[in-house]
Structures are given as structure tokens and as C-alpha cells.
UniProtKB/TrEMBL annotation:
It catalyses: a neolactoside IV(2)-alpha-Fuc-nLc4Cer(d18:0) + H2O = a neolactoside nLc4Cer(d18:0) + L-fucose; an alpha-L-fucoside + H2O = L-fucose + an alcohol; a neolactoside IV(2)-alpha-Fuc-nLc4Cer(d18:1(4E)) + H2O = a neolactoside nLc4Cer(d18:1(4E)) + L-fucose. This is Alpha-L-fucosidase. Its EC number is 3.2.1.51. Homotetramer. One of its GO terms (cellular component) is lysosome. Residues 370-454 form the Alpha-L-fucosidase C-terminal domain. The gene is FUCA1. Gene3D superfamilies: Glycosidases, Golgi alpha-mannosidase II. Residues 1-19 form the signal peptide. Pfam families: Alpha_L_fucos, Fucosidase_C.
Amino acid sequence: MEPWALALLLLSAARPAACQASPASPPRYSPDWASLDARPLPGWFDAAKVGVFLHWGVFAVPAWGSEWFWWHWRGERRPDYELFVRARFPPGITYADFAPRFTAHDFQPHAWARLFQEAGARYVVLTAKHHEGFTNWGSPVSWNWNSVDTGPHRDLVGELGEALRHRNIHYGLYHSLFEWFHPLYLVDKKNGFKSQHFVLEKTLPELYDLVKRYKPDIIWSDGEWEAPDTYWNSTSFLAWLYNESPVKDTVVVNDRWGINCSCHHGGYYNCQDKYKPGTLPTHKWEMCSSIDRKSWGYRSNMKIDELMSTSSIIEELVNTVSYGGNYLLNIGPTKEGGIAPVFQERLLALGKWLNINGEAIYESKPWRVQKENGTNKTWYTSKEAAVYAIFFTWPQDSVLHLPSPVLTASSQVTMLGFSETLKWQAAPGGGLQVTLPCMVPSLLPLQYAWTLKLVGVK
């Protein structure tokens, strides 16, 4: 008997009841995109604006190249990966041999949660399972390829969730629908995705298990791009999620549920990694970015010029929020469960900026103008009666020209983090000119970006 056939036989015998259809009253949302897409997005997500993304798995053991290490090494068989393994590891080592070295010895979930709170994150998304198939919880269909049975011997998903919720931070779980080398997935792929062995015996049991066990606020789906949503049974799962699951009223999902779903279906849109629409979208969206520009997982050989600076992170955040998006900033922990000091420094700097300027970010809405097109890089957000102008270049004469706001008799201008009301006047040709505080910008609490609060403008 072929190995994959034996795996299918054994898995079928142990198929969890979670995948079986259960009798229920007619659902509020039916398993079709027209119905599912009509579900209102829970309001907490739009209000949150800022999240931290965590790519953590066995790929943190080689810690080289990217989180796609296994695929580049054994799928594409790239020579540079083969040379790296030969130089660093014993002859004949396999990817499975890396798992016991994924120890998480230094993983302190409450310390992580404190760091993310200090960074200003309102939600955190952890990779419960990446494309390598290793699960960061004791998945009953993982064949011991999980963090409870090997490596850390800990429920990483559960421990982090408990710590985050202790600090009232929303918890999301990233889950890859597919796995590069799983034999059942390869059978379905060979069959042109006409069979669903992998979906019924692996993907769906894991999704149901994650929801019932950990009650996530977000399901961040990925790994969908090789097969249609009908193969993944996406609409059936989402109908259960919205109608019957323990998080049916609060959970949000993204748009990666099958070929052609991205940027078309789902609770909010990712569209693609590091997506920047450039114009104001009509649908809620999220921009995910990584401090390490070359990888989402931890790399021991990353260089400082390959990392995002604090100013570039803040600019990306402001640009995203001004266009109505959420900003999800990624870091990769080490195999021991440490967070590199340079990542901590970037996160804490972001939190320091948000501590002063968060009023212009959290719970904000796009204004009628998103960005000024002049020499000063300035973006706008709004909240109730206030408009916020966030600018990144301090003018040499300390006079900032904002062409877009229309003045009224009750107009007032202040700077967040600065107690005095600022002087302003109508600018020739429209808009207003604001006289900024008479001090060297380097003496201000922040040196990256500053926010003017405009009240009584149109």
C-alpha cells in the first residue's frame, strides 16, 4: 500500500466529529458569498487600527532565508539552501529533525503581551500553523507534528492567548489552509482538486478545533492560492463560524479563502502582502508589513539596512490609517522564544509615538482628503468634530501650509503633545498656514511625525 493511502485510511478512521454536518435551524447566513459578504464587520476591528503579527514555527530553527525555508530547500531545491544546511547541520538531516530544536525555552507569554501593549497594539495575530504544517498547539490531526508533542512541549497558542486577553488585547490566529508536503494535499492536487481528502481530514478539523478551543477574535487565513474556495469548503465553514460558533458575533476574517477570493470576498481585505491601495477603498482592509523587509520569520543573518526604520514604520501606519486600513506589523521570534532587541526597539518606539498621537489613529475615520500632494508629506484622519493633519517634514520657517482644510469662524488648531493653542491664518489661495512651536524639532518629544488637531474646519 502507498504511504499516502495508509495515511488516508488511518486519518479517515479518526475523523473528528467537528467536520460532520449537524442539524440546525436555518442559518442567518447561508453558505454563499452573497450572504456571507453581507455580514457587518464587528466594529472593534475598525476601531483597533494597530496590530502585531507573529511568524513563529520550526523555520525559526535554521533561521535563514525566510519562513519558506523548507520549500526553498526541499521543494525548489535551491543550491544556496543546500549549501547552508551542509555547512550548519549534520549529514542527512531532515526538516523534521529541526522540530526538537524549536525549544521556546525563553518564551514568556506575559512579557510578550506587555511588550505588545506598550507598542500600542490593539490586536495580535499568531501563526497557529504555517505552510510547513507544524501546529503551535496540540492539533489532534497533526500526527505529532506540533508544539505539544515535540519541540517546546507547550501549547503556544493557548499560553499567548491567555496572556493577551489578560491585557484586553484582541487575539487572532493565522492558519494556512494548505501544507507544502502533506501527502493528502499532494493527492488532492494531483487529482486537480476534485478530491478533498486533505480538506476533510486536516484543514477543516483544525479550523473547527482552533475556534472551539481558543475562541479567536480573528481568523487570518492564508495558503489558499492553488485551489478554489469550493475545494476548501470555505463558505460552509464561514457560515458555521457566523451562525453557530462560540465567536459568531465577534470574529472577523480576512479574504484568503480560495483562488480569486482575495480582495473580493471576506470580512476585510488583505488583497496581497504589503498592500497599498493608493485610493480610498470602499471595503475595510488591512495592510500587513514586516520590520524585516526580507522575511516574515526570524533570520539570524538580517542586517540593519534590511529592517524598517521607526520613521518608515510610522509613515506606513499613517498612510494606511488615512485610507481606512488597519496596520499589522510583523516580527519573527527566535526558536527559543526570544524577541530580538532591534524588534523590541522598533515596537517600543511605535508605542511611544502612539502614546502621544494615538488620538489621531485609534477609532479614526478617513477624512474627505487623505493626503496633501505638496512638498510636505501630510496625511489626514478624522474623528467626530476633529480633523488630524499628520506631517512628516518640519518646515524650515516653522510655518506649515495645509491647502485642503476650509476655515470657519470657530476654527482652532493645536498640536498633540503640545499644550498651547497654535497661531494660524488663512493662506493665500486657500487653506491655512499654521505657525508651529518655536523650538528645534529635535527638542520635541518625538522626531518622526507630528499631529495637528483641527477643530471647526470643513
